[in-house]
Amino acid sequence: MTAGGSLRTQYARAFAGLFLRDLHVLRRELFPFVIRVCMNPMLFLFVFTFIMPHMSGGASMNPTAAAMGTNFSTVLLPGLMAVAIMFSGIAAVALPLAQEFGITREIDDRVMCPLPVAAVAIEKIVFSAMQSIIAAAVVFPLAYYIPSTPVVAHVNNWPYLITILVLASVTSGALGLTIGTTVEPKQIGLIFGVVVMPITFLGCVYYPWTALSHIRWLQIGVLVNPIVYMSEGLRSALTPTLPHMHPALILGMLVVFLVLLTWLGSRGFMRRVIG
Amino acid sequence: MIVEIEGLRKVYEGKQRVVAVDGIDLSVSPGVLYGFLGPNGAGKTTTISICTTRALPTAGKVRIAGIDVVKSPSQARRCIGVVPQYNTLDRACTIYENIHFHCLYFGFSQADAKKRTDRLLEQFHLTERAQAYPAQLSGGLAQRVQIARAIAHHPKVLFLDEPSAGLDPQSRIAMWEAVRNLREEGITVVLTTHYMEEADELCDRVAIIDHGRILVEDTPSALKNSVGAQRIYELDLRSEQGIPQLLQTLQRQPGVASVESTQKGLRVFAEGTEGLLSEVVHAANPYGLRDLTITEPSLETVFIRLTGRELRE
Fold first, then answer.
1. What is residue A64's predicted lDDT score, i.e. its pLDDT?
2. CB B54 to CB A108 under 8 A?
3. Can you give the residue ranges of every domain in chain A?
């Protein structure tokens, strides 16, 4: 009854089994998933692109919008997609891992699959990337309906957008894996303050990278933040009219972060599960 | 041999260097129910972790069904089932799904996985709880699900790490029954325990392990026979003063195999089963005999003889 044939079939089937399990659990927890991916972009768009413009003197309370000179929802769209992608990586990999490494050790049965242990970690990244893409796609309709002034998005190059989207999603899964395996399970609550908030606010989410040119040290400093390349990448693909980094630099840096974080994450994973 | 362990060592480097496994050689023949008996911290769990690919040895080799667990861990995993000490059931999935997905991980088709899951649920009397979540199960029931899941992919060897830790006596007996039935299916079982009754009742062969080494390895009855006595009198004396003298007196007594001193008094190993009691009491009375316990040799006695300590210290 067990799988015959080559080693590759054995690995592929085990990998598919793990993916099916995750899909099954996600389908059962669809409602929390929807809340998770919608709440942040919805509230952001609602406050900054609906409430603020309706206030008297809204523009002055919304300095970025004033600085950009264009409508703020257009700046926000790629940024919020980047945050959604990054958030999914944390929520789909880092948080569950903390539980599975910590109290329950549930991960043990999956580690005992007839599959190299690193592949179990890779499956986590791939599954998280799928959630990230869904989360990013959800931002679109929200950005279309919520803001008081419409978003000006224009895709010239679909393959480029898809490449950026997939690359950003997989990288964020790898980021989640690195965080989930580095941080002690009992301190996982801290990562929101220590990691998620800084990389979001300093991730060129709410402003384009070029807008930092007057604060040179910060403009250089944020280059170590992978979220910068996610939001700049989406900005260059979706709203090319706004200033953005060079696409080759974005793609290159996303690949660098993907390789680095996957390596760190799977090394941490191995260290956690193999004594 | 289905499990072969050669010169196995595991050293945890760090602030405090710990030698968890210190040169274990062992082989288990197919179809046997094999027990590692030893106190907590003896290196049983580490040995099992290495055998089941969850820890890497510092030195030595482990082969399961001829497969080297360090060189080809993912191949070795197809031959082994594991029930760890703690409950590792997937909390997000029902009992049915726990077993079903485990089958899928091991390459079963959907139809085969369903068939196998249904059969296992029936075999382990879990059908009624199929839709329950792990958090809703008692310890004994969760343990049964873990065993069912561990053997779902037809492993050749099942490793059980302290299977009765935390179980009530009734669940323990049910678990023993389940484990015995596995042997009838031809699965080799290797378990660790620090309950000597469990090793005695359940296992065909037992290795007594302490400080990362195997002290002795044989069938439970051969181990008990090695004590060379049929009765053990444990004497509790009021003062320690006369102990050496009483020891000499008792040693000369016909029917006494040997005598050794303990913290509270003396331990007398008797060859026969009859007639010695009154003479032991008579001899000990002048030395302030406070209490007397009579036991038959157990694996615990074997352990005490080998280490000078009790198993549950």
1. 55
2. yes
3. 7-273
